[in-house]
Amino acid sequence: MSYENTAMLVDESLCTGCNACTVVCKQLYKLPHGVFRTKINRLSFGAYPEVKDYFDKRACFHCTDAACVKACPTGACQKDENGLTMINSSLCITCNWCVNNCPFNAVQPDRANGTIEKCTLCSGRIKKDQEPFCAEACTTRAVKFGTRGEMLQLGKKRVSELKSQGYTNAYLYGDYELNGLKVLTVLTDEPEKYNLPRNPKIPISLQIWKGIPFKPLVLAAGGAALAFNALHTRKVKNLQNKNKQNKGGE
């Protein structure tokens, strides 16, 4: 399989919430406590006895039009040759702009190591013609891996099957969202039930920011202004305290 055309399909209708994907990913990548590259969320709707549960495997979707890449001021968050979104830790200043701007909450700060963590789709394994760890670990084959064309075909077929089984709101997420996602998801219900935005968009502020030349200089100037402001404030407070002391001694 060509590395340049790889994608993943997550079929939420087959997910049992066993967390095998979460555990194997966390162990093999030695992630610190509270930090995940992928995680299963259990979402419940309704009131007893009419409660409906949904399992949501949440990880980076590797958006074609990625907000995190546009938000990153240092170029640490970047696209590789396959269009996967990667973090270059040597350039990361942990400003958390990627964390705050991801519409899927799929990027996490790793404060213990001073960097950012997110799913890489196991790119190293892909280059060796191996499946990502989560796809290999999935006991129900809810996570599949192949070319994007194959995954789109499988996803659309599965949605049609689900609709014929009574899941009238079944939906393939990622076909068009943000100009296409590398991780496609079969949903049994509306995206909102999975806490997914139906029509995610890049904020206009980010689009403007991406077009600003010399961002590092802008950041440096902003940092210098903040430092100057802090020093100035401190100087004013010192003068005020000194004046109070002088008045008290009169």
TrEMBL record:
Cofactor(s) essential for the protein: [4Fe-4S] cluster
Residues holding [4Fe-4S] cluster 4: C72, C92, C95, C98
UniProt keywords, alphabetically: 4Fe-4S, Iron, Iron-sulfur, Metal-binding, Repeat
GO MF entry, a single one: 4 iron, 4 sulfur cluster binding
Gene Ontology BP, a term: formate oxidation
Compartmental location: Cell envelope
GO cellular-component term (any): cell envelope
Positions contributing to [4Fe-4S] cluster 2 binding: C25, C119, C122, C134
Binding annotation for [4Fe-4S] cluster 3: C60, C63, C68, C102
Domain 4Fe-4S ferredoxin-type: 6-34, 51-82, 83-112
Cofactor note: Binds 4 [4Fe-4S] clusters per subunit.
Positions of [4Fe-4S] cluster 1 binding: C15, C18, C21, C138
Protein name: Formate dehydrogenase iron-sulfur subunit
